[in-house]
TrEMBL record, chain A:
UniProt keyword terms in alphabetical order: Cell membrane, Ion channel, Ion transport, Membrane, Metal-binding, Sodium, Transmembrane, Transmembrane helix, Transport
Protein name per its UniProtKB record: Fluoride-specific ion channel FluC
Subcellular location: Cell membrane
Membrane topology (UniProt): Multi-pass membrane protein
Sequence positions that bind Na(+): 86, 89
PANTHER family on file: FLUORIDE EXPORT PROTEIN 1-RELATED
Purpose: Fluoride-specific ion channel. Important for reducing fluoride concentration in the cell, thus reducing its toxicity.
TM helices/strands, residue ranges: 40-63, 75-94, 106-130
The species this protein was found in: Paramicrobacterium chengjingii
Family: Belongs to the fluoride channel Fluc/FEX (TC 1.A.43) family.
Catalytic reactions of this protein: fluoride(in) = fluoride(out)
One protein family per Pfam: CRCB
Biological classification of the source: Bacteria, Bacillati, Actinomycetota, Actinomycetes, Micrococcales
UniProtKB/TrEMBL annotation, chain B:
Protein name in UniProt: Fluoride-specific ion channel FluC
Subcellular localization, as worded in the UniProt entry: Cell membrane
Residues reported in the UniProt entry to bind Na(+): 76, 79
Catalytic reactions on record: fluoride(in) = fluoride(out)
Pfam assignment, any one: CRCB
Transmembrane segments: 6-23, 35-60, 66-86, 98-122
Lipid bilayer topology: Multi-pass membrane protein
Source organism per UniProt: Paramicrobacterium chengjingii
Length: 145, 125
C-alpha cells in the first residue's frame, strides 16, 4: 500500500509532526508549572488546561472554516492541535490532583474538578467563536483586496 | 529541574503525544462509533498510570527525575484536556446534550477514580 493512502496516524511524517508539537507543548506546560508557586490549589494545571481548551477551539474552528483537512491545514492541525495543544494540556495530572485533593478537602476537590471541566467548555466555545471571527475577517480582507 | 531532565521531559511529552495520535486513530478506525471513546480510553489509562507512578514516587520507589520525565512528560503529553473539551462542545453542538454531559463528567469521574486506584495500589507495596 502506498504510504499516502494510509490513514494519517499510520504515516511517519504525521507522527513526527505530532511528536514535535507535543514536545514543545509539554515543555511549555512544564515551564508554567515551574513558574507557579506550590499551593493547595493546582493553579498551574488549571491555567494550561483552560488556555489550551481555548486555543484548540480557535485553531480547529478556523482551520475547518478555511477548508478541507489537507496540505498545510492538516500540518497545522496535527502539529499545533493534536501535538502542541494536546501536549500542553493534561488530563492525567488534573485527575491525580483531584484524587489527592479529595483526601484533604472534598469541597476543594469537587470545586477544582468542576471548575476545570465547566470553564474548559466555556473556554472552548469562546475559542470556536474567536476562530470563526478570524476566518470571517480574513475572508473579508481577501475579498476586498 | 536540570536542563537534561527538562529536555527529556519535553521529548517524552512528544512521544506521549504521538502515541495518543496513533491510538486515537487506531481505536476510532476500529470502533466507528459517533462517540469519542478513544480520548476517554487515553485519559483514563493515562490517569491510572500517573497514579501508579506518583504513588511509587511518594514511596521513594522512583526518583523525582523519573517522575518528572515519565509523569509530567510522557503521561502529560499522552493525556489531553483540550481535545476532551472540544469533543464535549462538538457533541452539544450536534444537540447531543446527554452524550456531551457523559463525555465531560463521565470521563472526569472515571479518570479521577483510575488515578486514585493507581495511587492506592502503590501505597499497598
Amino acid at each position: 500500500m502506498n504510504s499516502t493512502h494510509r490513514p494519517p496516524h499510520r504515516q511517519w511524517r504525521f507522527l513526527v509532526l505530532v511528536a514535535a508539537g507535543g514536545a514543545i507543548g509539554s515543555a511549555a506546560r512544564a515551564a508554567i508549572a515551574l513558574a507557579f508557586p506550590d499551593t493547595v490549589f493546582p493553579a498551574a494545571t488549571l491555567t494550561v488546561n483552560l488556555l489550551g481548551a481555548f486555543g484548540l477551539g480557535v485553531l480547529l474552528e478556523a482551520l475547518s472554516r478555511f477548508g478541507d483537512d489537507r496540505g498545510r491545514r492538516r500540518v497545522l492541525r496535527l502539529a499545533g492541535g493534536t501535538g502542541f495543544f494536546g501536549g500542553f494540556t493534561t488530563y492525567s495530572t488534573f485527575a491525580l490532583e483531584t484524587a489527592r485533593l479529595v483526601d484533604s478537602s472534598l469541597g476543594i476537590a469537587v470545586g477544582y474538578a468542576l471548575m476545570t471541566v465547566v470553564i474548559g467548555v466555556v473556554a472552548t466555545v469562546l475559542g470556536v467563536v474567536a476562530g470563526a471571527g478570524i476566518h470571517r475577517r480574513r475572508s473579508q480582507n481577501g475579498g476586498t483586496a | 529541574m536540570t536542563p537534561l531532565v527538562f529536555v527529556s521531559l519535553a521529548l517524552c511529552g512528544g512521544l506521549g503525544a504521538a502515541l495518543r495520535f496513533w491510538l486515537d486513530g487506531a481505536i476510532t478506525a476500529r470502533l466507528r462509533k459517533p462517540f469519542p471513546y478513544a480520548t476517554a480510553v487515553i485519559n483514563v489509562s493515562g490517569s491510572f498510570a500517573l497514579g501508579l507512578l506518583m504513588g511509587a514516587a511518594a514511596g521513594a520507589l522512583v526518583s523525582e527525575s523519573v517522575a518528572l520525565i515519565v509523569g509530567t512528560g510522557f503521561l502529560g503529553g499522552y493525556t489531553t484536556f483540550s481535545t476532551a473539551s472540544v469533543e464535549t462542545v462538538r457533541l452539544t453542538q450536534q444537540g447531543r446534550w446527554l452524550a456531551g454531559l457523559i463525555n465531560g463528567i463521565g470521563m472526569l469521574v472515571l479518570a479521577v477514580a483510575a488515578a486514585a486506584l493507581g495511587w492506592a495500589l502503590m501505597s499497598l507495596l
